[in-house]
Amino acid sequence: MTRPRSVEEHAETIERLLDPLCTEPATATVPLAEAAGRVTAEDVRSEVDLPLFRNSQMDGYAVRAADVAAAPLALEVAGDIPAGHTVPVVLHAGTAIRIMTGAPVPDGADAVVPVEDTELVLGRDDDLHGAVVEVRRPRSVGEFVRERGSDLRRGDLLVPAGTRLAARHLAALASAGVEAVGVREPLRVAVLSTGSELVASGERAGFGQVFDANGVALAALVQEAGAVVSLREACADDPEAFGRLLDRAIAVSDLVLTSGGISQGAYEVVREVVVPRGGEVTTVAMQPGGPQATALVDGVPVVCFPGNPVSTQVSFTVFVRDLLRTAAGLPPAPRRRATLAEGLRSVPGRRQFLRGRTDGDAVVAVSGPGSHLVAAMARADVLIDVPAEVEALAAGQEVTVWAL
Amino acid sequence: MTRPRSVEEHAETIERLLDPLCTEPATATVPLAEAAGRVTAEDVRSEVDLPLFRNSQMDGYAVRAADVAAAPLALEVAGDIPAGHTVPVVLHAGTAIRIMTGAPVPDGADAVVPVEDTELVLGRDDDLHGAVVEVRRPRSVGEFVRERGSDLRRGDLLVPAGTRLAARHLAALASAGVEAVGVREPLRVAVLSTGSELVASGERAGFGQVFDANGVALAALVQEAGAVVSLREACADDPEAFGRLLDRAIAVSDLVLTSGGISQGAYEVVREVVVPRGGEVTTVAMQPGGPQATALVDGVPVVCFPGNPVSTQVSFTVFVRDLLRTAAGLPPAPRRRATLAEGLRSVPGRRQFLRGRTDGDAVVAVSGPGSHLVAAMARADVLIDVPAEVEALAAGQEVTVWAL
To answer: Which residues does the UniProt record annotate as the domain MoaB/Mog (chains A, B) (predicted)?
Structure first.
């Protein structure tokens, strides 16, 4: 048997295999209403000035600042501009025009007097015919007027490439009249569970059978990492059936993930199918998750995890999660330092990823190392990363923890 | 005019209005495959032991520990148990049975010898008839045997109520054969934009018209906060049309959000419709976002924001976001302290939420206070919370920032 690979070595293998997916994402154009959470594939520049036109910052009266310099004084109300008024209006010297927030400031006006600083002394709010308004205080040129282009100029960058579109980006794009935007397409990832012992939840598990947990868990992990599930299916330990399933998966996917069938046993269906197609099965010095495999089948990367649900989840988290996140334009999942609240032991020679639960900066292992402890893992919120050379850690020592 | 309300007072008003939505969420039962990201409505207990049966932790040979105490020694291979083997098998003293990881350990066996510590001295991997295996080292009772129920006992808690279901929870539920799970239903939130000046993106904005940004922005904010958009529509400043739209929204929603039509102007459509139906329009001492309104129409809360896209987004973030997150079982959005990289000025008497951009613990305002600066807001990642009484802050002073 050859020397087991280190976690770092196997991570590099998978990184090389998935590199084209991360660096050359497919793109699509989607309407703004469907673009929330998507990542821009290119810079988006504005084709318009923002604001689109000179407009009022307040409900009030558009005036010439020079005309109200001696306020308080009264001005004839010569017109009324509601928001949405589509005919340009001209203000004549010595008059005021009522204006609503956001409405176009008339030519000739250079200030807006807020309604709070005014009073109609003739006429009514709903009938401005022959009205006169008292302006209580002077305003300087430009006050409460938003100039065209004062937020953004035509040609300026609205949203840079690589931006995960949140509400504020969509608001800016929509304000500039952008209808649709070029975004990265999520990776299409197939999730294949293998094992003659598997039954679907909802069926009856006979003696010796177990429920397939890897399908639903890997599908959720893939989605959490910003990709979509192209195919999710379980398969018995039948090489011919698995070969056909793999071909179906490859046809519709950018990446195929498998669980089970790669260890040293006699019925290793994934090993039997992928090795003749150029795949490589290896042992990684880690716990859980020792057996690992990779292949490039018909140009599509295939990453194979061991079948135990804890091993599968840990393997995905360690080897694939951040690559998918990168491809999706997401930041890497957080890792941080935490302090062990209790000591722990580890098997030297293997990097161990124990399931842990944090409380502030403290962390405690929630179970032993057994990779069958799938219920215990549900109580964890981190993986405790114990380096390969470590045999024991005492309470109070620092460890790296990976967020789950 | 009455004294403006403080931000805290208006936040309390909205909190009371939305309280039933947060404390009495609707629930639904969904299949596990659709449950990722949903929040459990109740404790889920296991109806089975996990593991379901005593099984092997390794590929190897099931033996009696007593029989291999004097290893190295050779044992007759009396059988073969692949994973998924559904017929109970009995191990007779002095023999070994080949077993795969996860396969049921035969009655009579109390240890598993990993395949790496064995060698077939008679027979072949693919033909165990009359085979003999050499066991190289002894194993103690229980080694590499996973006992039934060692992960979880029937009746134990699998996943507590209020858990946002991630892959690890789904794996545990699936392993226990759970098919479907009771989860909170997301709140259904209607998003209504008002304003005769609005045109949809894709249409041509004539003079005086602007593109509706609030619809797409509020819809994205609602989804980011864990709710779903029940209806999204824009409406001109026509009280009759808005009244009909409001009724349609109420019929399909747990909450209605509106933008525009609540300030002091002459054409305030939301004000005209909600006040006669018991709504309350108020002025809040904040910038942006002074005009605010709330109503309870036919038992459905209605929260009304001012129409400017920056004001709308800030109002949602300050008053509604964390309430929706609570209802969805999400933690509150983060607020933290940051240090101003540049000084800033503020209007005393109003709590100001300036758009800021952080770099580590430093923050700088990305624009002036103008609520029309929608493109500038796209460059921000936080709101800088400047208390109402503050007139100026110097570089180096600490402020609270709200994550966008």
So the answer is: 190-326
